[in-house]
Structure formats: structure tokens, C-alpha cells
């Protein structure tokens, strides 16, 4: 069955708990950062955290869950293990309306998890153990499913391990051969700094739609000037979308620059998944044939909803919310 989008990304379960800045500082964890951790560090940090909530996550998985909530038909490719958290992830993404058929890993590393520490200001500090995510390979790709999708969506978080990177490159090749679109999210500054040359080459040669926040695009071109980074972006990606937290979003397309203000939020509770949900809203609008300004507005509406509560998945009827605000 054709899909509006097929996403490849980390299949992760988020464990979210509140924390103080002192808790972070005492463990030399930079507030607001995202870091990869090993199994031993994950065990120690989990033991020290306060009571947590387990919620399915993963950047691209959050994005397609948002798209499904907005009426689209998405599919997801990502690896979990045959364990309890793997069962949680599989149930949740299918229940969200996303096609997910990647078989679980039997033996080896456990399902990936992200230990998220949220401070009183709503800022999130992410500590990610990738586990089974890194075992994804080209063999897990269904070439026909990739070719049938209108858009292929890839997350920068998964670019580091060699096997998943090869799978994404193969998916790009399949999508390009059948004339579909490729979308890519920069994911995080640490991803950009680790793979700057690769990401620049992707934008120049393979990516039609790019997502990133202002810090990520500035890191991509090693500049402190957002305007300078946008100037460079305009040379490459067909559509470049840059988020700026409460200030909204900028969209570059065909020489045009569109500025869309952010949505008001009564109280920011947890910023986990804001960029993921923005991308889901934007891509849903695109799949439904809306103009770019409306796509960005839907992205802002979805992001505003998700930061008003804990967790990276919507807790209200997103379609009804968008209809009420946009019609």
C-alpha cells in the first residue's frame, strides 16, 4: 500500500523524569544537551533518576506518529530488540497508525532508550543508549515499500553507526530512482559537528527538504550568523525549514523566504519532541497539498501542543486542533 512517507530512524523508548540543575551539574551533564551513553552509564543514571514515565519516542518515529495523527499514512523502519521495551515501542507506534514491520532483534543489544531529565524551565537533557537501533541494516529495507512512498524521511541521529547509515544511503538510492522526495533532519548540533561534511554533501546532492533549528544550521556552516547560514542553505536544499523555538520558523524555497510566528503556549512543560512534531506537522501539510506557510503553521501548532505536557507524542486530537486554528 502506498504511503505518504517512509521514515528511517532510531526506535527508542523515552524514560522521562524531573531533575534539578544541580543533579545535572553533579554528574557533569550539560543542561539542555543530548549525549550518547553506553550501557553501564545508562544503568547508573537510571538508578539515580527520580520516578520516570516510559513513553515511546525516537525522533523520526515521533514525526511519523504526528503525521498519522494529522490524517496521513506513514511507515517507519527502525530496530528494537525482542524485549519488554521493544514490545512497548512496537505496540505504541502501530497503535498510533504507523505501518511498522521491522522484525525485532533476537539476542544482542537491548532496545534503545533515552533517559530524559526535565528541569523546571521545561528544558530537556537527553542521555541516549542506542542499543539495538545500531543493528539496523540494508537487509531490513523493503525496497518496494521505499519506492511506493511519496517522501523518504531520515534522521541525523542515526547517521553515526555504519550499518544504519548504509541502509539510509540505499534508501536514498531507491527513492531517487523512482523520482520521490528525500527529507532530512539535522537532529542535533552534536550530529552536525560529527558529520558536517556528510550533511553538507547530502543537502547539495540528495535532500529536497531539510529540517533543523537555528543552532544546528549555524553549526552546519560554522557561523554565528543565522542569516549567513540561511544564505548557504538557499544554495542547496529545495526546501529548507529552520525552527527558532518561540520565535517560530523560517522557510526557504525557490528563492523565497517565509517567516511564520510561533504559537502561544500557556506553560512550557517539556520541550522533548518539539522539533520532531514540527516536522510531522509540516510534512503532513505538504502531503495534503497546503502552501508552505500553512505547512509551517501546522508544524508550530503541533510543536506547541507537545511542549505543553510530558512526552513527545500528541495528547489531543491534532486534526481537530489544526482545523480550529486554520480551518
What is this entry, summarized?
The chain is an alpha/beta fold and 327 residues long. The protein has 13 helices and 14 strands. Helices cover 40% and strands 21% of the residues.
- The name CATH uses for the topology is UDP-N-acetylmuramoyl-L-alanine:D-glutamate ligase
Give the CATH class: Alpha Beta
Cα separation of the termini: 29 Å
Helix fraction? 25-40%
E-strand count: 14
Helix-strand category: alpha/beta
What average pLDDT do the residues reach? 93
Beta fraction: 15-25%
Order of helices and strands: EEHEHEHEHEEEHEHEHHEHHEEEHHH
Q: For the largest beta sheet, what order do the strands appear in spatially?
A: 6-5-1-9-10-11-12-13-14
The CATH superfamily title:
Ribokinase
Assign the CATH architecture.
3-Layer(aba) Sandwich
Shape type: globular
Secondary structure tally, helices: 13
Q: Main beta sheet, described? A: 9 strands, mixed
State the assembly state of the protein chains.
Answer: single chain
Total domains, how many? Answer: 1
Which tags fit this structure?
single chain, 327 residues, alpha/beta, UDP-N-acetylmuramoyl-L-alanine:D-glutamate ligase, 5-stranded mixed β-sheet
Your description of this structure?
By secondary structure, this protein is an alpha/beta fold. Helix content is 40%, strand content 21%. It has a single domain, classed as Ribokinase (UDP-N-acetylmuramoyl-L-alanine:D-glutamate ligase), CATH 3.40.1190. It has helices spanning 21-26, 39-48, 59-69, 84-95, 143-148, 162-177, 189-194, 196-205, 214-220, 226-233, 274-287, 292-306, 318-326; strands at residues 5-8, 12-18, 34-36, 53-57, 74-77, 99-100, 112-118, 124-129, 151-155, 181-185, 209-213, 239-243, 249-253, 256-260. The strands form two sheets. The protein has a nine-stranded mixed β-sheet, sandwiched between helices. The longest helix is centred in the middle third of the chain and has 16 residues, at 162-177.
Amino acid at each position: 500500500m502506498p504511503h505518504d512517507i517512509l521514515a528511517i530512524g532510531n526506535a527508542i523508548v523515552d524514560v522521562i523524569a524531573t531533575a534539578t540543575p544541580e543533579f545535572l551539574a553533579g554528574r557533569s551533564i550539560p543542561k539542555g544537551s543530548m549525549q550518547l551513553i553506553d550501557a553501564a552509564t545508562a544503568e547508573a543514571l537510571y538508578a539515580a533518576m527520580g520516578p520516570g514515565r516510559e513513553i515511546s519516542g525516537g525522533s523520526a518515529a515521533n514525526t511519523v506518529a504526528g503525521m498519522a495523527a494529522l490524517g496521513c499514512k506513514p511507515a517507519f523502519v527502525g530496530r528494537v530488540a525482542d524485549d519488554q521495551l521493544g514490545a512497548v515501542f512496537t505496540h505504541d507506534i502501530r497503535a498510533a497508525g504507523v505501518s511498522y514491520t521491522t522484525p525485532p532483534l533476537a539476542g544482542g543489544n537491548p532496545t534503545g532508550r533515552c533517559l530524559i531529565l526535565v528541569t523546571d524551565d521545561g528544558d530537556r537533557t537527553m542521555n541516549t543508549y542506542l542499543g539495538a537501533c545500531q543493528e539496523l541494516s540494508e537487509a531490513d529495507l523493503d525496497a518496494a515499500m521505499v519506492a511506493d512512498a511519496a517522501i523518504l524521511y531520515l534522521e541525523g541521529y542515526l547517521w553515526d553507526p555504519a550499518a544504519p547509515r548504509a541502509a539510509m544511503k540505499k534508501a536514498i538510492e531507491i527513492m531517487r530512482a523512482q523520482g520521490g522526495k528525500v527529507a532530512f533532519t539535522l537532529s542535533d548540533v552534536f550530529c552536525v559537528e560529527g558529520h558536517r561534511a556528510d550533511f553538507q554533501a547530502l543537502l547539495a546532492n540528495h535532500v529536497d527538504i531539510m529540517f533543523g533549528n537555528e543552532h544546528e544550521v549555524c553549526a552546519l556552516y560554522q557561523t554565528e550568523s543565522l542569516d549567513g547560514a540561511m544564505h548557504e542553505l538557499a544554495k542547496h536544499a529545495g526546501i529548507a525549514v529552520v525552527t527558532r523555538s518561540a520565535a517560530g520558523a523560517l522557510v526557504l524555497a525557490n528563492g523565497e523566504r517565509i517567516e511564520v510566528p510561533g504559537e502561544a503556549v500557556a506553560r512550557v512543560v517539556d520541550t522533548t519532541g518539539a522539533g520532531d512534531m514540527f516536522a510531522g506537522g509540516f510534512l503532513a501539510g505538504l502531503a495534503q497539498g497546503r502552501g508552505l506557510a500553512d505547512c509551517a503553521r501546522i508544524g508550530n501548532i503541533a510543536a506547541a501542543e507537545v511542549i505543553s505536557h510530558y512526552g513527545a507524542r500528541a495528547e489531543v486530537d491534532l486534526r481537530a486542533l489544526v482545523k480550529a486554528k486554520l480551518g
